[in-house]
Amino acid sequence: MKKSERLLAEKFLLQRIYEEDPDFVDKTMEAFSLSRSTVYNYINRLQDTGELERVGGSMPYRVLYRTTRFTIDTSKESSEDRIYNRDVAPLLEELPLNVQKIWRYAVTAMLNNALEHARASAIVVVVNRSRLSTIVGVLDNGVGIFRRIQQQQREETGETITTGEAASLLFAGGYTSLPERHAGQGIFFTSRLMDHFAIRSDMELFTLNREDAEEVSDRFRGTAVQMALANDTAKDLGEVMARYIDPEEGFVRTEVPLSRIFGGSDPVSRSEARRLGEILAGFAVAELDFSGVEELAPDFAHELFGVIARGRPDLYLKVKNANDRVTAAIRRAGK
After folding, report:
1. Rounded to 5 degrees, what are φ and ψ at 108?
2. H-helix or E-strand containing 226?
3. Residues spanned by CATH 3.30.750 within the chain?
């Protein structure tokens, strides 16, 4: 078998193992017309190169990552592009150009948040690489992103909000604790570019996917960002941004996962609807994803679709993944 064919077979094998497919040997044999002994030769080679580890059990192997870690002293370094170009870019130079562009945007955006918003004295960056994917963590010892938002909201409105409400302000994009210097788009676009994106701070977790949401049992004082992306992704930085940015008007389209904004609970009150309306201020189109929302209380539905929507004809609310009960509640509220 040619080297290029062997590399494809090895990557296929690694993917099956990563997905914990119990038939990883048979499927690799079938996909590439290989003998069982050849597949096990590949497995042995991948163990020798440090890409696989034998762990035993029902899934006897696991994919290994090469880990690179470095610490930034923010009293000496303040330019996220220099940090990226020096420390991160050389680790990713073998990836396709579209993937390198995404990582440059995402990592510099998260470094900028840590440098300018977090008031951190130190930032730790961890880069984990395998043949399949790359995982980058950016951790700082600053004030904590949700606590920073709470502080800014108290200063602006006099109200004390929960860390969950602080996290909800990030879903639509456009929110920043430094409006005079930032547009509040970095987290929004990075979360849409990544296959996996999560922010943890205090005892709160921000993530778009309900599947990634989990109970946080211990407190993290600063902010920890984790990003993961397949090395062969077809995602394109410009194409993803074009979904939300108008060439003339700018960032005017957004999307909001309703179940994540309200912490996994079905929205019920008018005040919740009003807070959502405030989050959507400045947007022309908002796609509301109702995945995971089982019921929509009449008060919430009427306030959002009967009061706010009618009072803002410049805002188009696009409904997505609504079940029959939610659809009926929206229809009644709009009459």
Report:
1. -65, -35
2. strand 220-230
3. 244-334
Rounded to whole angstroms, the Cα distance separating 115 from 122 reads: 9
Within the chain, which residue ranges are assigned CATH 1.10.10?
3-63
* Highest mean pLDDT: which range of 150-164, 229-243, 252-266: 229-243
List of residues 6+ apart from 77 with CB closer than 8 A:
83
Q: How far is it, in rounded angstroms, from Cα 228 to Cα 275?
A: 31
Q: How far is CA 24 from CA 4, 46, 57, 327, in A?
A: 20, 14, 14, 42
Identify the pLDDT of residue 118. 77
- CATH for 244-334, among 3.30.1490, 3.30.420, 3.30.750, 1.20.120? 3.30.750
What residues form DSSP beta bridges with 253?
A: 285
Measured in degrees and rounded to the nearest 5, phi and psi for residue 124 equal -110, 130
**What CATH code is assigned to 3-63?**
1.10.10
Q: What's the pTM?
A: 0.90
Question: What is the pLDDT, as a whole number, of residue 61?
Answer: 95
- pLDDT in the model for residue 27: 96
Between CA 186 and CA 242 the distance in angstroms is: 15
Q: What is the pLDDT of residue 264?
A: 73
The per-residue pLDDT for range 283-330, each reduced to its tens digit, is: 999 999 999 899 999 999 999 999 999 999 999 999 999 999 999 999
Phi, psi of 170 (to 5 degrees): -90, -15
Classify domain 66-236 by CATH number: 3.30.565.10
**CA contacts within 13 A on the Cβ side of 150:** 15
| Mean pLDDT, range 151-165, rounded to an integer | 88
Is residue 218 scored above 70 in pLDDT? no
Q: What is the DSSP string of 50-118?
A: TSEEE--SSS-EEE--EEEEEEEETTT---HHHHIIIIIGGGSTTS-HHHHHHHHHHHHHHHHHHHHTS
Mean pLDDT of 194-210: 89
